[in-house]
Amino acid sequence: MASLSVSRHNHLLSGLLPARHKPTSRPTRVRMSLRDDGPSIAVVGVTGAVGQEFLSVLSDRDFPYRSIKMLASQRSAGRRINFEDRDYVVEELTADSFDGVDIALFSAGGSISKKFGPAAVDRGTVVVDNSSAFRMDEKVPLVIPEVNPEAMQHIKAGTGKGALIANPNCSTIICLMAATPLHRRAKVLRMVVSTYQAASGAGAAAMEELELQTREVLEGKPPTCKIFNRQYAFNLFSHNASVLSNGYNEEEMKMVKETRKIWNDKDVKVTATCIRVPVMRAHAESVNLQFENPLDEDTARDILKNAPGVVVIDDRESNHFPTPLEVSNKDDVAVGRIRQDLSQDGNQGLDIFVCGDQIRKGAALNAIQIAEMLL
Question: Which residues are catalytically annotated?
């Protein structure tokens, strides 16, 4: 399990951002999260990059809880974590960890989720899982709160009835945050996506190796290649997910299958090419949409400006459009390059460019928003 402390996480981010993009410190305020009427929660994989972001988002959004458990692998057990001015000891994850837990946030990999997710559900816990373990299970809702909240409307925390809810893949979340409002207006028939995915999608160790490689290459040293077995700094390559017999890799097929499930549309045509780029923590995506009904770019721009969780950055005159740096540490997904697809007649197609923070909206924030809907 990858480990990244909050301080190390901030160092990685701030060390690679120009001064104007460095996150500003939030004003000190009294936290009201610890409440007797809140649910009991557990964070599984708390020492990883997404686990640490879970804590950050819980605090930022004043998520109410009466107790919180910090859970991780045996090698991380015993570590101390300070959260909202209280010290917690990381506990080893076991099936018994979920006794009395209302909501469990999982980000520890698919094998851990498959082993301990059902065990938590058996104890009456609602599990929000960030892995791919249950996403395509017909009985498990796959949810983006701004897109398909109705998929989990029958599930509530604290009832003693456990359930599984799956967090979609980060690239799917970021894409559909922008594509769905347009789909609702004009119905997407076909979507072509090219992704430019950050190191954060491969965990804390990949982020650390990208920083290390960058320093090594600039100093004329051979780069350390342990995570991807190739140079990542100043390079890009096809996503490291396994390539399937159809020539697509697993990351690309997640986009295909998850979009159909989330939109509840088995006929929508989706194709994707997923690429790793030397960016620290925010994904970018070029999205081409073909519609059943005409949709002009001005109407599309207005729709996106009013879409929850979306911000439009589309200044053609100054050539200012979304960038990974601008959305790092931000909750909203940014959309720009909104333009008519000239290869399609009759306003039947659009091109858009989307950027979103992979750790935040692509993982932790989406999971916390799901948890908020359980209250």
Answer: 170, 283
